[in-house]
Amino acid sequence: MSTKTTAGPEIERLIQLLAKLPGLGPRSARRAALHLIKKKEQLLVPLAEAMDVAVEKVGICSTCGTVDTSDPCTICSDPRRDASTILVVEDVADLWALERAAALNCRYHVLGGTLSPLDGIGPDDLNIGGLVDRVQAGGVSEVILAVNATVEGQTTAHFVTDRLAGFDVRVTKLAHGVPVGGELDYLDEGTLTQALKARTAF
Amino acid sequence: MSTKTTAGPEIERLIQLLAKLPGLGPRSARRAALHLIKKKEQLLVPLAEAMDVAVEKVGICSTCGTVDTSDPCTICSDPRRDASTILVVEDVADLWALERAAALNCRYHVLGGTLSPLDGIGPDDLNIGGLVDRVQAGGVSEVILAVNATVEGQTTAHFVTDRLAGFDVRVTKLAHGVPVGGELDYLDEGTLTQALKARTAF
């Protein structure tokens, strides 16, 4: 669908750029642009400012690979965090999800994706060397691989485990099972099998 | 759902503002913010610039009420447009949709909404006076009411027709019928009845 409007090249360009955001197509980008223009003072001006601030301040943590306005990031520079446990995730979004769960007061490491030979993504394209360096530097007793339960995620987990084999560190992974609030009827056979195998005392 | 991340108040604020766009909730706003930060040079920087330009340049056409970077807008100032026909729409998005169809080389008038007593939107909240002024100024032979086929749209159309009753101008409305490419089985009874009533020679 065309993004064409009658409103001049500046608005066209705004719509075209908005349409590149995940979750926005050409039609919703037009709606978003109109919404921004109509709410100029309440939304467009503050959003433009927030983006300028992000352009200026946001970067990648050189230790763990997350995005933050400081380097080392808020988590890596927090002395109250347990530095002996590193939770390895594929993406910053996964780190944020685990932080919302607030289950573990640990440090993180963001791989930046998964191994995917078909897409040309090899070990050197991921932040695996940085993880090995952190483990090699000492003080780490456990690395938890919190990668997605996909083929690519599991392949990456195996590769990372191999790379950490020489070090005195425990490598663990997330438990499989029934999601909290999940209904058995809607779950796949693989999940049900894993949940049965890993059953615990009631 | 919380928009909470670990990445500092600047990124929180960017996510909160993005979540106010139509079509983006808290989760997709987080994804959009991450996407922007990861594609800083390709997307975040140009989008921030496009928004700064929009803040500076975009305004409302004082003649027809559309958004544009010039006033009068591109359409109102185009001498090749037939100024004797005014196509009245509820919203700028409708104007853009009709322009993409490119069916009529006419002028427009944007009402900015529909009459809705329950929401406290009366005639003075819409750009109806501006339309009456344009008709009163002369040179207009037809006003086409291209409002939505909703109760509010039709109420607004009746009100606008009443206001234009004293002038020598033809007031028309869009045809009802089967959408091009539409399947009869999926259409409501109202549309089918209107399509039958307005049947034409094959």
Explain briefly what this protein structure is:
2 copies of one chain form a homodimer. The first copy, chain A, has helices at 9-18, 26-38, 40-57, 92-101, 128-136, 151-163, 189-197; strands spanning 59-60, 67-68, 82-89, 106-110, 142-145, 170-173.
Can you walk through the features of this model?
Chains A, B: One of its GO terms (biological process) is DNA recombination. Chains A, B: May play a role in DNA repair. It seems to be involved in an RecBC-independent recombinational process of DNA repair. It may act with RecF and RecO. 2 copies of one chain form a homodimer. Chain A has 202 residues and is an alpha/beta fold. Chain A has a domain of 92 residues: Dna Topoisomerase Vi A Subunit, Chain: A, domain 2 (3-Layer(aba) Sandwich), CATH 3.40.1360.10. The first copy, chain A, contains 7 helices and 6 strands; from the N terminus they run H-H-H-E-E-E-H-E-H-E-H-E-H. In chain A, the strands form 2 sheets. In chain A, strands 4-3-5-6 form a 4-stranded parallel β-sheet. In chain A, strand 5, helix 6 and strand 6 form a beta-alpha-beta unit. In chain A, helix 1 crosses helix 2. The longest helix of chain A is centred in the first third of the chain and has 18 residues. Chain A is globular, with a radius of gyration of 22 Å. Chain A starts with 8 loop residues before the first helix and ends in a 5-residue tail after the last helix. The model of chain A has no long low-confidence stretch (mean pLDDT 90). Chains A and B meet through helix 1, helix 2, helix 3, strand 2 and helix 4 of A and helix 1, helix 2, helix 3, strand 2 and helix 4 of B.
